[in-house]
Amino acid sequence: MRASLLQVAVNEGESVELRRRRVAGLVREQAGADLVVLPELWTTGAFAYEEFAREAEPLEGPTFEAMAEAASDAGVWLHAGSIPERDPEGPLYNTSLVLSPSGQLAAAYRKIHRFGFDKGEAVLMGAGRELVTVRLPDTTLGLGTCYDLRFPELFRGLVDAGAETFVLPAGWPERRRAHWTLLARARAVENQAFVLACGTAGTHAGVPQAGHSIVVDPWGEVLAEAGPGEEVLTVEFDPARTAETREQFPALKDRVLGVERPRR
């Protein structure tokens, strides 16, 4: 299976519409890949909080339309990163879109863990409530977004729902890049799953981005890692290794659930 992670640079001098057209072109260039992945909030920048409401769009708005056409032209499964979604009956959401090779919406995931500690995204966006998996021909994807990476119980839930490959778009800051790599490898090892983590390059509202998109196998080995700038990271991997790893080292079978809290 061939996956291409598009580590898009988000810079203030480029309009959202211009970036949409540019990224659509990058997606079309990945014809021959099985899966293409974009970063979190690449239309606005993950830290450009004042842009969220201004650029929010319906689930099947302009970003969906541009990415659906590009996915269809390239004939690829496309995780189109995330957008600031405007729900006509509720708040904004940080919502990821997965499109089929025919350009149909296969899944949408509203980010569950919002970053900001009572400011920024944590107050501007609503929280998702549902775990989301997507069945591809060769693997089942489990979806998370950026800050979700710090919460292992989400990924355990995705494993229980059948996930074999985690896809995680992000707008991760450079100052915590070491955590990005460490946590991506940890989620792979503890769940015996592939991790495809796609970040942004550039600077969002004065916050330098980590870049360093990464693909990790079920043993925690790094198969490929990008640098800090805009880059297309392409890797070939065998999805069957997830089942093989879980059979060879069946640690997931030893999970102990429902442990009682200590008495005080």
From TrEMBL:
Signal peptide: none annotated. Keywords: Acyltransferase, Hydrolase, Transferase. It comes from the Bacteria. This is Acyltransferase. One of its GO terms (molecular function) is hydrolase activity. Residues 1-239 form the CN hydrolase domain. SUPFAM superfamilies: Carbon-nitrogen hydrolase.
